[in-house]
Structure formats: C-alpha cells, structure tokens
Design goal:
70 residues; 0% strand
C-alpha cells in the first residue's frame, strides 16, 4: 500500500490540475447550503459534490486528524 507521503504527493498533483480551488472545496465541505446548488455554482456534478462533502474526494493530507472524524 502506498505510504502517506506518496498519497499526499498524488493528491497534490491532482489538485494542481483541478478546476476547483481549495476555497471552493472548503465551501462545499462545510456549507449548510444544498450540494445541488453548490455544485451548480462551481460547475461540477452533484455526485462529485457529494463525494467532496463525504470526504471521499479531495482529502486533506496536511491535517493528520482529517480522516478520523466522520
């Protein structure tokens, strides 16, 4: 299995190519607004918006405790 460092490097490379900024991801993740309206606002699919909100996509590898609390 890949180590934490390798997963973080892969995630950083994918983020560099992403059309969403880190601020937009934080807005989707922590906003009380519906995912459907946020996904339309940022030009992504609703499924991707739900994946971001659940933490399945765009994980925060800088925070060692990010994946512990669901």
């Amino acid at each position: 299995f890949p180590s934490h460092d390798i997963r973080a490097k892969i995630a950083a490379a994918k983020r560099a190519k992403s059309k969403l900024s880190d601020e937009a991801v934080m807005e989707i993740r922590y906003s009380d607004e519906a995912v459907s309206s946020l996904s339309a606002k940022h030009g992504i699919s609703e499924a991707y918006g739900h994946m971001i909100r659940r933490g399945d996509s765009r994980k925060d590898y800088a925070n060692p405790f990010a994946g512990l609390i669901g």
